[in-house]
Amino acid sequence: MSSVTIIVAYLMKKHQMSLENALSLVRSKRPQVAPNEGFMSQLENFEKSMQVEQERKLMQPVQN
């Protein structure tokens, strides 16, 4: 896995950023960043799994 992919995934998870926003932030600091197609696919899947996780949390009943 490339270091760029790890950094983008970290930003997405830790700061609840979208793939697009995380990649834009990394590119603002290092413009030549260009994850290959395979890594982008993994990041897209990661983003989808985070969305599902967030939806599950919203659907859980509030516990007193």
| Major pleated sheet | none
The total domain count is: 1
Give the number of helices: 3
What would CATH call the architecture?
A: Alpha-Beta Complex
- Look at the structure and give the mean pLDDT: 92
Q: From the alpha carbons, calculate the radius of gyration and give it in angstroms.
A: 14 Å
**What is the H level of CATH, i.e. the homologous superfamily?**
Protein tyrosine phosphatase superfamily
CATH topology: Protein-Tyrosine Phosphatase, Chain A
What overall geometry do the principal axes of the alpha carbons give?
Answer: elongated
Kindly describe this structure.
- The model has no long low-confidence stretch (mean pLDDT 92).
- The protein has helices at 3-14, 19-29, 37-59.
- 72% of the residues lie in helices and 0% in strands.
- The protein is elongated.
- The longest helix has 23 residues, at 37-59.
- The chain has 3 helices and no strands.
- With 64 residues, the chain is mainly alpha-helical.
- The protein starts with a helix and ends in a 5-residue tail after the last helix.
- The protein has a single domain, classed as Protein-Tyrosine Phosphatase, Chain A, CATH 3.90.190.
- Helix 1 (3-14) crosses helix 2 and helix 1 runs parallel beside helix 3.
